Amino acid sequence: MSLIQDQQIKGLTVRDLMIPGEKVAHVQLNNPLEHALLVLVKSGYSAVPVLDTSYKLTGLISKTLILNHILGLERFEMERLPNIEVQEIMEKDIPSVTEDLPFMDALKMVIDHPFVCVADKDGIFDGILTRRAILKRLNRNFYEDRQKEKKE
Questions:
Q1: Which of 54, 57, 59, 99 could form a disulfide with 90 if both were Cys (CB 3.0 to 4.6 A apart)?
Q2: How many domains does the structure of the chain reveal?
């Protein structure tokens, strides 16, 4: 990568790469697991953020958490889904970042997670930063750099 592009990448913040909260599938604390599973299946995601009624980030819910919770001895006990709320089984200890965090710091966080949630200082959900968004940006910069090298 050229020095100019290296500086452009280092100058990025989470804000430059994140997907805004309005475009992110999510569920609320008191939603039944049946609703959460429907959101997960319809969206195609393996996990989504859990928000309270004031849009404060409170955790993550995933297909794996739901299925593990309704797994019986011989079958999935699907009839339990409407009677269990998301807040009962969601993962509460989740990584999150702020919009102004430098790209290079956020990059370290998505090594172990397909996405990290973005929240403001009060915990209000702002969006997500995905590995995909980061890889797309790096690929674009790499491709542009290669094109410049070919012209020179």
A1: 59
A2: 1
Which helix (H) or strand (E) element contains residue 16?
Answer: helix 14-17
> Could you give the CA distance from residue 25 to residue 49 in angstroms, rounded to a whole number?
8
8 A C-beta contact, residue 60 and residue 115 = no
Q: Which domain holds residue 41?
A: 3-151
Task: Round to whole Å and give the CA distance between 37 and 86.
Answer: 10
Q: Supply the DSSP string of 87-138, one letter for each residue.
A: HHH-B----EE-TTSBHHHHHHHTTSSSEEEEE-TT-BEEEEEEHHHHHHHH
Alpha-carbon torsion (71, 72, 78, 82), positive or negative: negative
Name the residue with tokens 């290296």.
Answer: 6
The per-residue pLDDT for range 94-122, each reduced to its tens digit, is 989 999 999 888 888 898 899 999 999 99
Q: Which tokens in the block code for residue 128?
A: 């997500």
Phi first, then psi, for residue 64 (nearest 5°) are -60, -45
Please return the burial class of 94, using the count of CB atoms within 10 Å of its CB with bins 0-12, 13-18 and 19+: middle
- Single pTM value for the model: 0.85
